[in-house]
Backbone:
């Protein structure tokens, strides 16, 4: 049986292959690598089992708004370390990853050796950050509040919230999720209560707090 069970969540097949190569070379037969190409796929993998040793999570995944995928993971599966991976390598992005609970950040421009070192460091129970992590400002109070509210949502509530923010009506959401309209209304009520908002517009604005680059 593999010593490490690692989930690679990235929507770019080429980069998933690069990660597979780096980790296979770095960890050898000790690692079992499983891929997910969207937040929905990632959630289904996590629902199958919750004892993954590590999740490597692309910042801009289909089904996520900026850091919302990371926040959801930290809220629902706090025991699993998450390392963010992104082509956006600005100090603010790295720092927000850390403040939202990631265990590390790997820029997509990294060499295979750096990727291997970062993953091994986190698997050993430590954290790994690139140099630009030291340059950034702290999160705003609004972003922290948004993070805490979103972390309290269930995966189904999070799916409903993203659909609300995409402008879908309750009837359309019910059709997409194969549930009743009454169930969707109950989810929306619970979401608004957890996020401390009263309207769909307010919910969408709150979700935008988790976009990757803070407004200047």
Residues:
């Amino acid at each position: 049986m593999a010593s490490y069970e690692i989930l690679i969540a990235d929507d770019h097949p080429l980069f998933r292959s690069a990660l597979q190569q780096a980790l296979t070379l770095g960890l050898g037969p000790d690692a079992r690598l499983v891929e997910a190409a969207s937040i929905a796929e990632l959630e289904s993998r996590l629902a199958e089992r919750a004892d993954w040793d590590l999740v490597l999570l692309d910042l801009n995944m289909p089904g996520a708004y900026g850091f919302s995928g990371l926040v959801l993971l930290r809220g629902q599966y706090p025991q699993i370390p998450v390392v963010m991976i992104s082509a956006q390598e600005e100090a603010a992005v790295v720092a927000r990853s850390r403040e939202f609970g990631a265990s590390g950040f790997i820029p997509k421009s990294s060499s295979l050796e750096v990727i291997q070192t970062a993953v091994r460091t986190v698997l050993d129970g430590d954290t790994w950050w690139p140099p630009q992590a030291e340059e950034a400002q702290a999160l705003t109070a609004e972003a922290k509040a948004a993070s805490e509210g979103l972390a309290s949502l269930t995966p189904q509530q999070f799916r409903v919230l993203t659909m609300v923010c995409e402008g879908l009506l309750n009837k359309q959401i019910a059709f997409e999720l194969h549930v009743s309209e009454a169930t969707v209304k109950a989810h929306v009520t619970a979401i608004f209560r957890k996020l401390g908002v009263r309207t769909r517009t307010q919910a969408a604005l709150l979700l935008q707090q988790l976009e990757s680059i803070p407004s200047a």
